[in-house]
Amino acid sequence: MDPNGKKEIRLIIGLGNPLPEYQKTYHNTGHLFIDYLNNEKVDFELLKTDVYMNQSGKYIRAALKKYGLRPEEVLVVHDDSDLPLGKFRFSFGRGSAGHQGAESVINSLGTKNFWRLRFGIRKQKGKAGEFILRPINAKDYLLLEEAFGASQRVIFGSLTR
Q1: Are 74 and 30 a contacting pair, CB within 8 Å?
Q2: For this structure, is 27 an active site residue?
Q3: pLDDT above 60 for 2
Q4: Considering only CA atoms, which of 94, 73, 95, 106 is closest in space to residue 7?
């Protein structure tokens, strides 16, 4: 946080898996959010990982080096199977809670002190592995888009560049 209490995020990176068959799945919610922001033309540097989820940390470490940024200047966006579909949480300095992408980032950066925006994808009981790679249906995508819009209004209104 800067002295005025505003977040100093310079780079937003969406996590996901790179192959076309994963593009519209629940696990690629981070990529879908970046697509959403690109359509909204926000004034932030936006990236989507081009590696598998469990290799996200290497990608983010390289991106921070390329842009000359510190971990606390990045917002990492990903799915969260512990949150209900359509909900989101913005946080700083949290553990991975079992999310392989977040765990990879923490391990590669050597810190958990970075911003995270997590979008809920859970709509059913069972293990996350049973549904995270399924295609998102139209009704669920509308719920995610509503969450994308709400998070943009709530979070990005208070960010500085």
Answers
A1: no
A2: yes
A3: no
A4: 73
Torsion of Cα atoms, 41 then 59 then 17 then 149, to 10° = -30
Mean pLDDT for 52-57 is 95
27: nearest Cα among 37, 41, 15: 15
Contacts of residue 87, Cβ cutoff 8 Å, sequence gap at least 6 = 119, 120, 147
Tokens of 114: 């970075």
Candidates 3.30.420.40, 3.40.50.1470, 3.30.980.10, 3.90.1150.10; CATH matching 11-158:
3.40.50.1470
pLDDT beyond 50 at 5 = no
For the segment 53-58, the average pLDDT, to the nearest whole number, is 96
Sign of CA dihedral 77, 83, 88, 90: negative
The more confident residue out of 153 and 57 is 57
